[in-house]
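Hi team, as promised in this morning's meeting, here are the two structures we talked about. I've kept the exact order from the run log so nobody has to guess. The first one is mostly here for context; it's the second one we should focus on when we meet again. Sequence first, then the predicted structure tokens.
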Amino acid sequence: MNTPKIAIIIPCYLQSEYLDTCLDSIYKQKYDNWECIIINDGSPDKTGEIAQNWTLKDSRFKYYEKENGGLSSARNYGLQKTQAEYIQFLDCDDFIHPDKFEHFANELNTGSHDILLSNFQMYANNKYSPAFCELKEHHFSYNAILLQWDIDFSIPIHCAIFKKRFISAGGFNTELKAKEDWLFWIQFFENRPKVVWKDDVFNYYRLHQSSMTRDRLLMMENTKKINQFLVKYIKEDQLEDFMSATHERYMVLLKSMNDEILSLKKSFESPNFKKVSRVFKQYIKRRWRKITNSHSTA
């Protein structure tokens, strides 16, 4: 049987320490008709060396280099490099289960669905933990994604296998440095795709200190910017609901920022921090005395 090809598009920038784990999760897929498109988005680390080792190991890995243009630019570049029927987006710090593609083999072979979705878990410090939201089948609609995103749920991009012809010709919006996934999901679901949902964990979302989602100010700035792009997607009878949802999204983001500030404040008030702070102040005073004494004797 001729199975349809899946292209896995992996943008890479300054996260080479996670790349082997990501690519190994592709290499171990039991479903074998895939190609993996690795895009080095101007990354100055060991991305190129690691990726080229995988191309030598298996010819299904393809490696490309481009000038740094951001996540959206790199994903769009990958879309241009493949003719595969299906697309799996995967950030280089995340990974997927080796059974994922095989688990959807029947749906892939019939081709009667436009998006194949499965659940996810968090991964940090070599430990798995529950997802940051609970995905449910009723979330996978245009209205839910437009109005409830970042309030009740959001869907990590690697939870889906997308039918390529259903992806907007423009791909990802390159003007957005965050929240580009949300706009992509809205545009995809605007065409009312046929959805397969399997409540099985096949996707792993790595959480680490350099994760973009930890930059709350970046999230706030791009949440504001994306509203400008969403006007054309909002019908007149949805405007009031959208404005209400927008307000609620800001409140959720502000609360998360406030929680982080309170957590930081508590850490400053801890006995350990006060001890370190006291020692540091004493060190600064000693250094300052040494500097002033050296000047006075000069």
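And here is the second protein, the one for discussion:
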Amino acid sequence: MIIPDAEQKTRVVHEILNQQYGVQEIYARQDPMHELIATVLSHRTTHANEVLAYRTLWERFGSWENIREAPLEELIQAIQSANYPEVKAPWIKAILSRIMAERGEAAIDFLREMTTDEAMAWLTALPGVGLKTATLLLLFNFQKPVLPVDTHVHRVTQRLGILGPKVSAEKAHALLLAYLPPDPAVLFNFHKHFYWHGQRICTWSFPKCSQCVLKNHCDYYAKARPLPMNAK
């Protein structure tokens, strides 16, 4: 669903959040292979449990080669702090096997030289790698002009009325990207600020609307706020 004036609203609220949270320099959270596997581990899992699973994986096996060759049951046990380890462990083994077979080592720095479309197609062909994982990796590590849409970005933009209520997170990637300039620094800040805002203010339950700097631009707030005492 396309919302009238959604592009204008997107840019207005983005500028407000730039002022609220400050413009950030684009940065990589960790090296590309770490980012790839950690993001696979992060699916439907808290950040703390993702970090624990990744640390345990390396403490137990010590190298990408050993992780690839590890017995599946041992790998599942190592990442049990992440939800659905029985699903993620085969994905990780398959991802490492493919990368090492194609490249001769566990490294994906070659994505930097690919076009955005080529890099996106290569990543999303890997087991367990969807749009969110691919866009996070390409934006953070390789500064490609893509926009990750996680649950926080999706929720906030829907409540604002930028996205329709039935627009999926998958479709939201392309819609939101079309409303913003193709500048990795802009897209990085949009992602980070909406992520923080969804974590801290526009939470899934009990959103803190009274503290929200976007409330005057928000469809959810307009519908949810109490009427004045003299309203008919």
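Starting points for discussion:
The two ends are 32 Å apart (CA to CA).
The chain has a mean pLDDT of 92.
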